[in-house]
Design a protein that fits this description.
Elements (H helix, E strand, L loop, with lengths): L1 H5 L2 E4 L3 H12 L4 E5 L3 H10 L4 E2 L3 H6 L3 E4 L3 H9 L8 E4 L10 H5 L3 E7 L9 H4 L4 E6 L3 H11 L3 E4 L5 H28 L4 H22 L1 H4 L3 H4 L2 H14 L4 H16 L5 H12 L5
Parallel strand pairs: 1-2, 1-4, 2-3, 4-5, 5-6, 7-8
Antiparallel strand pairs: 6-7
Helix pairs in contact: 9-10, 13-15, 14-15
This protein binds NADP nicotinamide-adenine-dinucleotide phosphate.
NADP nicotinamide-adenine-dinucleotide phosphate binds next to helix 2, helix 5 and strand 6.
């Protein structure tokens, strides 16, 4: 393990993720040696937050002074930046993109460097709190050994959950992030739309649902999805589900398909905490009967 944190780390790209990662790595005991950004002031700001970290005069200078270089530039810049640098066999080049495989690091691989992907399943807006937000998240890792083991250890050091993702599984892995983030936004918008239909201004509906959503997320984190589940399906309240279906059919029939699919998945979750088979079937029948107009 200690091998991982003995490597001197450097960053090319001191933007939202690069800054959060560098600060979090340094707090976790990793030597963060060099920061480079084409906007000098960004590298200076970052280096100022990390004891012992210098501003590299160029991307090449960052590579030359480290064993582990994170290319935290925007996705489209990873390949051109990597291709413009001289890499060594005794080092690693790592990107943090969820969209790219290792092909964008081909130039480094050809030079004998280890190459890897280290993608935090989290979103960073560029605030000082971002470094804490790295803790406890899933890290999708793609790399051959020994770099794979090092990156897994780094993820654990950051308080996260490493998951080795083969290139062929990348799309499936990304779909999980879409469910956990984009789909939640979509469901929040759907819920707000219903409240708006009932008369609440749209912005108040969105903001006013946030406390419920926040508590739900906290419960998921604390208890796990099965125990965090509340509501009519978890209680086996078939009549309430029927009333939802009737109300949606009358006022917002275009939401019935979504309600049906979400309820199906909710029934599967509720069964894991003891919903009996007969009630589960009754709920599924209630939503199955719903017809979109
Ligand atoms: N932000 C997130 O939520 C998040 C989450 C997970 C993964 N990631 C991944 O993290 C990586 C970085 O994303 P980000 O959101 O942190 O981007 P970002 O905030 O735009 O930061 C990228 C930084 O790299 C700089 N840069 C661009 N081209 C460069 C070059 N040729 N040489 C040196 N520096 C250059 C940018 O400067 P300019 O502004 O002048 O272009 C900017 O300071 C991406 O691979 C992204 O997929 C991001």
């Amino acid at each position: 393990m200690d091998e991982a944190i003995r490597w001197r780390a450097g960053l090319i790209g001191a933007g939202r993720l690069g800054s959060a990662l560098a600060v979090a790595l340094a707090r976790a005991g990793v030597t963060v040696n060099a920061a480079y950004d084409r906007e000098l002031v960004r590298a200076e700001l970052l280096a100022g937050r990390i004891p012992g970290c210098s501003v590299a005069a160029s991307a090449q200078a960052a590579v030359d002074s480290c064993e582990l270089v994170f290319l935290t530039v925007p996705d489209d810049a990873i390949e051109p930046v990597c291709s413009g640098l001289e890499w060594r066999p005794d080092m690693a080049a790592v990107h943090c993109s969820g969209a790219h495989g290792l092909d964008v690091l081909e130039r480094a691989r050809q030079a004998g460097a280890w190459v890897g992907g280290f993608h935090p399943v989290q979103t960073f807006a560029g605030t000082e709190a971002d470094a804490e937000r790295l803790g406890g998240c899933v890290f999708g890792i793609e790399a051959a050994e020994p770099l794979r083991g090092y990156l897994e250890e780094l993820a654990r050091r950051l308080g996260g959950y490493p998951l080795v993702v083969a290139g062929s599984d990348r799309a499936l892995y990304h779909a999980a992030a879409v469910f956990a983030s984009n789909a939640v936004v979509t469901l929040a918008a759907v819920a707000a739309r219903i409240l708006h239909e009932l008369g609440l201004p749209a912005d108040e509906a969105t903001r006013g649902l946030a406390p419920l959503m926040r508590t739900t997320v906290e419960n998921i984190e604390r208890l796990g999805a099965v125990q965090a589940l509340t509501g009519p399906v978890a209680r086996g309240d078939v009549e309430t589900v029927r009333r939802h279906v009737a109300a949606l059919a009358a006022r917002l029939p275009e939401l019935l398909g979504l309600y049906r699919e979400v309820t199906r998945q909710t029934v599967a979750l509720a069964e894991r905490r003891g919903l009996d088979v007969a009630t589960a079937r009754a709920i599924l029948a209630a939503v199955q009967a719903a017809q979109e107009s």
